[in-house]
Design goal:
alpha/beta, seven-stranded mixed β-sheet, three-stranded antiparallel β-sheet, 14 helices, 13% strand, binds pyridoxal-5'-phosphate
Length: 417
């Protein structure tokens, strides 16, 4: 007997909240107070950011870490550090946060979109190959939702075409690929510590690399173009002050101690839930190739085929929320359809090529399908609780599936798609 959906007046599957985010306690208070009382609040005279850079880089298989103010700046500085020509082409996925593209434009380079794979939601190496032109100089694979892109294939393409590879690891703290950490797989990597991220200090970012020359260039770029042997008021390249502050560094040092356990919990819960949801018709959790040895589950993302499931995505999301399961449909449209691209609102950037750039002609059908009809997101903090929480999520999906006929009627009445 199917139970009455909460959306239609029944009792919700879950009436308790999931784990809230961020998680903090005495260790954050102690570190923060230490930094506060030291009176050294800036990176130049404190110890917190320097310590964090070393620890975070080492945890991610890297010799160098350069902490910066956010995960957008880290992408841009990475591109600038490589000394690429103005208006070089940089291949990126269309299914990612705006910053992956805006950082390219703010480095005065041209974003070129290659579609994602519908199973893994990550850049498809074949689409990268197809997007390469004589002007391509770099590629930014995003480890979407916290699952590393197919880096061996991407690095092989990059080697053949002499491309710089910057991992956008904003979702992928602690993730691994063939047991190698995210952040150590490309030439450079960029992480974000913005509030929603798996490791956070409110706002922050870091560049990781094993290349000493790129590291030195990033360090100079994040510090007004200074060099270690130079005078204080001596500036060698155009840049600004993108240094992370000590209070953020202190918070990150405390939060970092939680990361390993939290990552293990998210991965175990996420894998368990994905396994259970895959049994329902029309639901396709993110495919996990063998090379994914650890998923960071910044998001548990799945595709819903509304026809096969029996009710459209918007109705399913409304029904799940009513059952006490927070979820969303994620990005409303692919990046090339953003007004910024449609209107070529590039500010002072790309003066030499802007007139020939026509993003209306760019089509990424897999990304469009995810945005318009199929993607569903569950956020990382939900995966930090006990296994029972996963059972509640799974029971709610099963209940909504059982009630799909009534839900489809509701959806027709409400006009949801
Ligand atoms: C994939 C991706 N890249 C880059 C960023 C930018 O990070 P930040 O918000 O720290 O600038 C984000 C942040 O949401 C992101 O999701």
């Amino acid at each position: 007997m199917s139970q009455h959906l909460a959306l239609l007046g029944g009792r919700p599957v879950r009436e308790r909240p999931f784990t809230s985010w961020p998680i903090f306690g005495e260790r954050e208070e102690t570190r923060l107070l230490g930094a506060l009382r030291s009176g050294h609040w800036g990176r130049l005279d404190g110890k917190e950011v320097a310590e964090f850079e070393e620890r975070f880089a080492a945890m991610h298989g890297c010799q160098h870490g350069i902490a910066v103010v956010n995960g957008t700046v880290s992408l841009r500085l990475g591109l600038m550090a490589a000394g690429l020509d103005a208006e070089s082409e940089v291949i990126i996925p269309p299914y990612t946060f705006f910053s992956t593209a805006s950082a390219v434009i703010e480095a005065n380079m041209v974003p070129v979109f290659a579609d994602v794979d519908l199973g893994t939601f990550n850049l498809d190496p074949r689409a990268i190959e197809a997007a390469i032109t004589p002007r391509t100089r770099a590629v930014i694979p995003v480890h979407f939702a916290g699952q590393v892109a197919d880096m061996d294939a991407i690095m092989a393409i990059a080697a053949r075409h002499k491309l710089l590879v910057i991992e956008d690891a904003a979702h992928a703290h602690g993730a691994s690929y063939k047991s190698r950490p995210a952040g150590s797989l490309g030439h450079l990597a960029s992480f974000s510590f913005q509030s929603s991220k798996n490791l956070t200090c409110g706002e922050g970012g870091i560049i990781t690399t094993n290349d000493p020359e790129l590291a030195a260039a990033c360090r100079s770029l994040h510090n007004c173009g200074r060099i270690p042997s130079g005078l204080w008021y001596e500036h060698h390249v155009i840049s600004g002050n993108y240094r992370l502050g000590e209070l953020q560094g202190a918070l990150l040092n405390a939060q970092l101690e939680r990361l390993e356990d939290q990552t293990k919990t998210r991965d175990a819960n996420g894998q368990y839930l994905a396994g259970r949801l895959a049994n329902l018709p029309g639901l396709h959790p993110q495919q996990r190739p063998d090379f994914c040895t650890r998923h960071a589950y910044h998001l548990c993302m799945l595709r819903i085929d509304g026809q096969a499931f029996g009710a459209p995505r918007a109705a399913v999301i409304a029904a799940l929320r009513a059952e006490g399961i927070p979820c969303s449909s994620g990005y409303g449209f692919s990046l090339p359809a953003q007004p910024m691209f449609r209107n070529r609102a590039f500010g002072p950037y790309l003066p030499g090529v802007r007139d020939r750039l026509d993003y209306e002609q760019v089509h990424c059908p897999n990304s469009d399908l995810l945005c318009r009809e199929q993607a569903m997101w569950l956020e990382q903090a939900m995966f930090l609780g006990p296994r029972d929480d996963m059972d509640d999520i799974s029971r709610a999906f099963e209940k909504v599936f059982d009630g799909r006929a009534a839900l489809a009627d509701w959806s027709r009445r409400e006009g949801t798609t």
